[in-house]
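Sample pair:
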Amino acid sequence: MPRYFFVIDDGISTTDDSEGLELPNLGAARREAVRALTEIASEELPDDGDQRGLCVKVLDGAGRHLLSALVSFQIDDTHDSTVSGNSG
């Protein structure tokens, strides 16, 4: 069974996968990348700004890039900052 490696890039740092996973095919690796990406995204909301991107790259055993799964989170605040909902 082929081994696939999952590199995680959160825009601040990159985490290499030195172990990988044995999966039956690229479709299974794709599903694993999406699963990992949604799990990471649910835990990694931006706390240092209003924007964050996450990427999981899938590599084969030879280090060839096979696919990437990406998600982007952005807050567009159109609210006038001089008007406050808090009436202290």
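The first helix runs from residue 26 to 43.
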